[in-house]
Amino acid sequence: MSIVEMRVPTIGESINEVTLSQWLKPDGAIINMDEPICEFESDKATLEFPAEAGGKLIYVASEGEDLKIGDLVAKIDTSFAGASATPEVIPAQPAQEEKKVEPSSPATSNYATGTPSPAAGKILAEKGIDPSAVIGSGKDGRITKEDAQKAEVPVKKQETAPEPEKKVVAPAANTAFSRVVRTEKMSRMRRTIANRLVSAKNNAAMLTTFNEVDLTNINALRAKYQDAFVAKYGIKLGYMSLFSKACASVLLEMPEINAAIDGENIIYHDYADISIAVSTPSGLVVPPVHNVESLQLHEIEFKIKELADKARNNKLTLDEMKGGTFTITNGGIFGSMMSTPILNEPQSAILGMHAIINRPVAVGNQVEIRPMMYLAMSYDHRIIDGSSSVTFLVRVKKLLEDPTLLFLGLI
Q: Read out DSSP for 141-189?
């Protein structure tokens, strides 16, 4: 018997520990080389762990267990290698007997037939669909991600109760008095987020300054050119690309806002890598869009969409999480009218967008209803003076209220 030990590999320079979030193969399963057997959750991303050999999988670690780099995860008994892929030898039968073979049992069936890929398995589990009810279109009948997405949840027929009976049914007597307590271990990402937020609060001299922006002209611009923009680029012109472009323009003019403290030194950046906050089931992540100052609006929109999709599907790589010189977070999509965002270390400033609300405002000597948004910028007072933070917000406000200045490069 030959045993191959599967240990936690080196994932990144700053990652010393991971969490085994879930097994993708059952204990004792016969697996092939390079087949994903489990998922690791690191501080920044979720990674699949492929088998280093084919054979029988033997669990060593448990789901939810924290593991250091080099810790033993599982063992593979290679004496079983190829067992699942080796077709059963069937004695030769007379010609007339071969006609009796049922077409519903293809000779190519093997371990992959009816087995969902890791991504497909997740989708089916979320939908509550049994893999055995799905026909795989992949190689050897494997269920692909597309098969899982197309699979429909079986509808159970239920008899429609008469209306009077519905009124009679009362909730369980103890529903309003539940005393159930549930304890769950925090995910690694949630723990990391918690530690970093506390660190930012404790280590930075953080202040927040506020302003408001009238989005009348931005809304008019989007309404007038949206159809043409979509027709040419295949994506909608959103607020985030316009806000990112405006911030990038001012960041290059005010390098102290785009800087970071490193010990007793200050690191300045001659580019604007803007981190975009994305809410995921695991927590908030902030992958950066690099060189926003050099990108067109449609390029920013595509990059934001790509990063957001990857974040929500746990597909972000470690490289895609690195960097960032300034952060934008949009609590307005959840209805927030005002907030004080926390710094994303080691960055020195973060801009908070909020809900757009039609409010009466003074325009000249008249009162008009305008689409208004409150802006909040939290900053590290150790490196950014109050006057600089106010000036930054005022200049961003000016570019957004008159977007022509943004397109002409005038601040």
A: GPBPHHHHHHPPPPPPP-PPPPHHHHHH----TTGGG-------PPPHH
Euclidean distance between CA atoms 266 and 263, whole angstroms:
8
Q: Which two tokens stand for residue 95?
A: 């010609």
Q: Say what the pTM is.
A: 0.64
Domain covering 1-86 in this structure, CATH number: 2.40.50.100
Give 83-96 pLDDT, tens digit per residue: 544 444 444 444 44
Judge: domain 94-152, CATH 1.50.40.10.
Answer: no
- Based on the residue annotation, tell me whether 354 is a catalytic residue of this protein: no
Instruction: Give the pair of three-digit tokens for residue 181.
Output: 């307590």
- According to DSSP, the β-strands at 206-214 and 36-41 are unpaired
Helices (H), 204-326: 216-233, 239-253, 297-312, 318-321
The catalytic position among 34, 214, 385, 402 is 385
In CATH, the number for domain 205-408 is 3.30.559.10
The tokens for 80 are 């079983």
Query: Does the active-site annotation cover 381?
Result: yes
Residue 1: what pLDDT? Answer: 65
Quick one: how far is CA 189 from the chain centroid?
11
